[in-house]
Amino acid sequence: MTQPTLIRRGRDGVSALSDPLPTALALAAAGVPVLPLRRGKIPFGNCPACAGNTCGGRPNMKTPGPCDCPGVCHAWAAATTDPAVIVSPPWAAAWQRAVCVAYHPGAAGLTVVDLDDADAIAWAHTALPATRTVATTRGEHWIYRGVMTSHNAVRPGVDIKSSMSYARYLGPGTGHLVDLPDAVRALAVKKPSPARPAPPAGAVPSRAGEGECRHRTPAYLERGIAMAEQRITEARSAVHATVYRTFLAVLSTHGRCACLTDAHVARLFAAAQTKGETARHCSDAWANARATLGL
């Protein structure tokens, strides 16, 4: 199967970016799933019917495509190549308010290495094979052919955007697209943490009659995640602080029992992003909460 190519340069170069809808349609025609971004470079929030992911989102938030609801929902999971969806309500109104176009790299068979500053770019020139390059506001996107799991902050100033993520479309870029190298995949491999000394006997009191970890009970965990999503969704101010405190509460209850899965974390991040948080803010808040709890 031929891998899709990001939009070809039009007659007027990249000036079409000033009008998001034609750019979105051209990308979709090239096989690249698109979605609109509002001011702040963030997706449009979930519609009232889907607030707090009460609709369940897309199936496990693993597949792209529009949600079966009247809103442009669920961020990257809403990305589509269907022109009928793109030009019809409610998408038509969203494009009128959109400030730029985003796309789901993983669904297009692509991985974006987001280099956020000059130091990150200098590192990439020495560590990664040359590929298609797109200039960003502060750095560059290096685009490779292939899909992997998305990861933030794999090294200073470097994020990886592929599956379950979105990237801004900033023009066709320069250079030839090459296959995703092992050097990029290796960035996402977590190094094993150094072993910690076992706590002294009796340091953690046992609870009589508790038996198997209660956190593994599906209903208990599901209720906790749903309450966390609701807390974030209902925040009217101090969203950053609310997200951090909610992450801290979830991790303090479930973080030491291996109960949380990637799907649970994705739900929490999705709820935060509907309130305007960026993927990076979510990752930073999660990492800070883990550090606070010594996880």
Write a concise synopsis of the structure shown.
The chain has helices spanning about 20-30, 85, 90-95, 120-125, 180-185, 220-235, 240-255, 260-275, 280-295, and strands at about 35-40, 40-45, 100-105, 110-115, 130-135, 140-145, 150-155, 160, 165-170, 180. It has about 300 residues and is an alpha+beta fold.
Task: Walk me through what this model shows.
With 295 residues, the protein is of the alpha+beta class. The protein is 33% helix and 14% strand. The strands form two sheets. Strands 4, 5, 6, 7, 8 and 10 form a six-stranded mixed sheet that branches. A four-stranded antiparallel sheet has the order 2-1-3-9. A hairpin with a 2-residue loop joins β7 and β8. α6 (218-233) runs antiparallel to α7 (239-254), α6 (218-233) packs parallel to α8 and α7 (239-254) packs across α9.
Note the overall shape: globular
Low-confidence stretches: 1-5, 7-16, 59-64, 195-212
Q: SSE order, as H and E?
A: HEEHHEEHEEEEEEHHHHH
**Would you tell me the overall average pLDDT?**
79
Helices and strands in order, then pairings?
Layout (H helix, E strand, L loop, with lengths): L19 H10 L4 E5 L3 E2 L39 H5 L3 H7 L2 E4 L6 E6 L2 H10 L4 E4 L4 E6 L5 E5 L2 E4 L5 E2 L9 E2 L2 H6 L30 H16 L5 H16 L7 H13 L4 H15 L2
Parallel strand pairs: 6-10
Antiparallel strand pairs: 1-2, 1-3, 3-9, 4-6, 4-8, 5-6, 7-8
